[in-house]
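forwarding from the other thread:

> can someone predict this with LZUJQKHR?

sure thing
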Amino acid sequence: MGLEVCKAVDAADDLELVAMIDQGDWLNGAADAGAQVLVDFTTPDVVMDNLQWAVDQGISVVVGTSGFSEQRLERVRGWLAHKPGVGVLIAPNFGLGAVLMMQFAARAARYFESVEIIEQHHPRKLDAPSGTAAHTARLIAAARAEAGCEPMPDATKEEQAGARGADVEGVRVHSVRASGLVAHQEVLFGSAGETLTIRHDSLDRVSFMPGVLLAVRNVRSRPGLTIGLDSLLD
Ligand SMILES: NC(=O)C1=CN([C@@H]2O[C@H](COP(=O)(O)OP(=O)(O)OC[C@H]3O[C@@H](n4cnc5c(N)ncnc54)[C@H](OP(=O)(O)O)[C@@H]3O)[C@@H](O)[C@H]2O)C=CC1
Ligand SMILES: O=C(O)C1=N[C@H](C(=O)O)C[C@H](O)C1
């Protein structure tokens, strides 16, 4: 993703690529080069250190790295409280189709008894469930809670641990990893006599670039923490 972002920024007439930082590189190189925005696609292990460093430096940040719990987001809000001019945008998925898939799933959530998420990724992915699936599950759980939905029907006794997937705020998430896949997600809703499947496929990593560039262009004019691309697409 890092290389793909560098190519996309480099190709954009209104943006300038001033530094590329890999593992082991000196992060200060970005500040020395005059970076106004840092884009982070690294790993859940190191993203918080990178983010804190950039906010301290007064550099706005666009984050695609997964692994953001509510506790992590609170820490970021704490750092930003001391840097009122700095913007941080964290998006679980920069694919515009994926953003719409999450919005459609949140909209459908209240109308169906059952919902499960099946996410599918390439086998080099380090984390499961995906950030997109976890975020979708939270949106669905919030919509169901707001609508006062009953718990989902499920009489299954799990004979083998994991058979029913992970429980993310009451929503089952199934993670598939297989060669040939890029990034895919289905949200399967069910009620008496009908199902609704909302599916998104990223077939190539270029799918994330329009969203990343949109975020890079806008993050400095949005101080504080922005989650997702939704508010930029309104
Ligand atoms: N929000 C979105 O739309 C998307 C999010 N993602 C997420 O982005 C993250 C990265 O994904 P992906 O590019 O596939 O993963 P990769 O493993 O291919 O890339 C991660 C890169 O980060 C580098 N890295 C590790 N530590 C540091 C560090 N301290 N400073 C700088 N670079 C470092 C790694 O270097 P090395 O190779 O030397 O270890 C590697 O090049 C994941 O969390 C993934 O889920 C991915 C796609 C889209
Ligand atoms: O690792 C990936 O590839 C992706 N990670 C993000 C996630 O965890 O949701 C976004 C997209 O699914 C690709």
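The mean pLDDT is 97. thats all i got for now
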